[in-house]
Amino acid sequence: MTNPTGSGPIGNGATASLRDGRLDDRDSELASRALDVLNENWIGHATKPSPHLYPHQWSWDSACHSIGYARLDQKRAEQELLSLFRGQWRNGLLPHIVFTDGARYFPGPEFWQTERSPDAPQSPRTSGIVQPPIHATAALHVFRHGEDPDRAAAFARELLPKLRAWHEYIYSERTRDGEGLAEVWHPWETGMDNSPLWDGPLARIALAPEDVPEYRRIDTELADASQRPTNADYDRYAYLVRVSRENGYRSEEIRDRSPFVIQAVIFNSLLVQSNRDLAELARVVGEDARPYEDWAELTSAAMNAKLWDGEHAIYADYDFRASMHIATRTAGGYTPLYAGVPSRERAEEMVAGIDGAGVALEPGEWALASLPPDDPRFEPTLYWRGPIWPVMNWFLYRGLVRYGYLHLARRVRSTLIELPRRSGFWEHYSPTNGRGHGGEQFSWTAALTLDALFDESSNVPVAPGPEAERRS
């Protein structure tokens, strides 16, 4: 198990950490397998999501990778984030892909044409859209678990201004009228690419053949086409990229002209938590934390005022162009728990009604499906239209611990660990039989498995009394 950064065996202390008594032999073996996946996907400066399907560096994937590395390899964890921010634009935009030269993928840099924007870097080449902002959360995680405190402090000082610029971009370019809710202008910006959430907004985009820029898909050559978005979806994805590039990636133009404008629950939830963690990083380096705390409270309050669906006890995405909530309920509606957005009473309502949103694969296990199994559009292996995604359950696990629902949290954590133990490290898993689908040898599944193995937050004892009954 070698570390291609040149720092010796991966984690210098990684192997020792797997044998120091924190993990039993069975979990140590799983952790070793997870490290092998991450090592095999290392591309010299960052970790690609999978060997074939995703050959570049993805934004929120890299944040998850750094979380997985944090307890085992401080240098690798830091490098993962710092390399991602090499692609940051001059206006603070953090692109969802930083491209690796020569790797075959669509849409590649020639399709994005980011050279149309004076803010885009010439090198490395990047995409022109964003992904959910989990980066400050990852940075704080890396800082807290770094074995070398001086190195960790230097890392925090180096990354803080880049994180600040990223959040400033979101609030200056992606919010309106001081409301504090960030907008997404492409389904890919939510990370939940072909979720049924977007069926209505995308269906309103009526396309003539000449509206769709020429493209050739590669994903369906590398993965089962039945598990991937449709060609009709891709026509609209490509069209929305065309809208951005023909407007020179100028936010003020896209904001007015894009037919797809969504205030997404998942994006804003992760933004709230990242603001809170950015505030903590600011305190670490002796800077003023108040601006980030204020942003967190602004967005949290706006989510509670505008995105809460009391009838269904879940948070709902808002379709700005249609001036209405999107009725579809998905795993994304539970991400506010992760960020501490709902009141305790609302959290109680959310958890009380969560059973129908997921599945119990084995005794002692439970996981959110990306779409509830009772939804007529549910398809257990089709990308974001039914499968279990580890990342969504990692958010849920953290949220359940935060609000004290430790019994359910333990069941979710068990699923995060046992699915890859049984089926391997896949992009997502079937909620009907637990088999893996999508990208194989998937890095963020390996990374979040490592974090779940080492995290024991759900095992914190609960004091006896009436509250303990609810929290156990």
Topology:
Blueprint: E1 2-3, E2 8-9, H1 14-17, H2 25-40, E3 57-58, H3 59-69, H4 74-84, E4 97-98, H5 109-112, H6 135-145, H7 149-173, H8 199-203, H9 219-222, H10 231-246, H11 251-257, E5 262-263, H12 265-284, H13 290-306, E6 308-309, E7 314-315, E8 318-319, E9 324-325, H14 335-339, H15 344-352, E10 358-359, E11 367-368, H16 390-403, H17 406-423, E12 428-429, E13 436-437, H18 443-454, H19 466-471
Antiparallel strand pairs: 1-2, 3-4, 5-8, 6-7, 8-9, 10-11, 12-13
Helix pairs in contact: 2-18, 3-4, 3-6, 3-18, 4-6, 6-7, 6-12, 7-12, 12-13, 16-17, 17-18
What does this structure look like?
The protein has 472 residues and is mainly α. The protein has a single domain, classed as Glycosyltransferase. It is 46% helix and 6% strand. The protein is built from 19 helices and 13 strands. It has helices at residues 14-17, 25-40, 59-69, 74-84, 109-112, 135-145, 149-173, 199-203, 219-222, 231-246, 251-257, 265-284, 290-306, 335-339, 344-352, 390-403, 406-423, 443-454, 466-471, and strands spanning 2-3, 8-9, 57-58, 97-98, 262-263, 308-309, 314-315, 318-319, 324-325, 358-359, 367-368, 428-429, 436-437. It has a three-stranded antiparallel β-sheet. A two-stranded antiparallel ribbon has the order 1-2. Strands 3-4 form a two-stranded antiparallel sheet. Helix 6 runs parallel beside helix 12 and helix 7 (149-173) packs across helix 12. The chain starts with a strand and ends with a helix.
